[in-house]
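Your task:
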Amino acid sequence: MDIIAHGIDLVDCPRIEQMVERHGDRFVNRIFTPAEQAYAGGHKNVIERYAGRFAAKEAILKLIGTGWRGKIKWTDIEVTNDAAGRPEVKLSGEVQRIAEQLKIKHVSISITHTANFAIASAVALSQSHETE
C-alpha cells in the first residue's frame, strides 16, 4: 500500500452555523448526503458534525488536486462511520472518476472538532487496507 496524496482542512464552526442559518435546507442538502444529515442530526453538536464532514470533503478535494469545480458535487463525497465510529469515505460521480484516474483505491480520514473548529486529514492510498 502506497500513499498517493494527502489533504488537510480546517473549518470554522461558526461559519458553517451561519451558512445553515442563512440558507437552511438548501445549503445542507447541497453539501451533505442524507446519511451525513442523519448522522449529524443524531448528535447534540450538529454544527460540529457538519463542520467535520465539510472539512473532510475539502481535504479530499485537496488530495485529488481539484478543489471544488467543474462537474464535482459536494455529495460525490460521503463521510459515514463504521460500527466502531471510525469515519469512512465513499466516493461517487466525478470525484470517484478522478480518484480512479489517480489510481486511488482507498481514502483514509481522521476528523476532530471543538465548538469553534473542525479539522480533517485525508490520505489517498493505492490499495484498500482490507486487501493487505
Q: What stands out?
A: The mean pLDDT is 93. Residues 3-131 form a domain with the Ribosomal Protein L22; Chain A fold (CATH 3.90.470.20).
